[in-house]
Amino acid sequence: MEIVNDSREIVPAVVRLLPAVTVLGSVSSSSDELSLADELRAVAPQCGIAVIGTDPGRGTMEKVPSNGFFSVVPDNAGLTHLVRAIKGLVADCTSIDQTVIRQPSPARQSLSDREREVLRLTADGAPVREIAAELFLSPGTVRNLTSSAIKKLGGRNRFDAACIASKRGWL
């Protein structure tokens, strides 16, 4: 792994190292990100590209290349979202989560930290009693937090709510 801070050094570093995935950091203009991504695709077509943008928005969505492996991750997304995007690129999968990119959802702001913790542990497959023990809560409190999160996210059950939150990069 090599960190490059100057955009002029990115292409030579990719040619030298031949990484499976290149992560381009926050750039204020999506056109800068995409032109650099096009340049990288030309010299290293096998390299997946993840672009972290301050506001990728619709302009980015319309200009995303159709060939090659490309992921767009908003910089307000959680680390889990970035890790999943990188794993997807390694597995040859394009990933652009439009629900996160276009606008922050009110649900993200309304989920409490505890609700996110409960959903994160639910996504990992933990039963209610195990979640309660890990978070030092009663099983009833865990059920109440889960119920609240299900309502906010529009899930069918706790696993569906955890899946929705995870797909949006909120866990």
Automatic annotation (TrEMBL):
SMART domains in UniProt: HTH_LUXR
Residue span(s) of domain HTH luxR-type: 104-169
Keywords: DNA-binding
GO molecular function, one term: DNA binding
One Pfam match: GerE
Keyword match ATP-binding: no
InterPro entries to which the protein is assigned, alphabetical: Sig_transdc_resp-reg_C-effctor, Tscrpt_reg_LuxR_C, WalR-like, WH-like_DNA-bd_sf
Record organism: Streptomyces daqingensis
Protein name in the entry: DNA-binding response regulator
SUPFAM superfamilies registered for this protein in UniProt: C-terminal effector domain of the bipartite response regulators
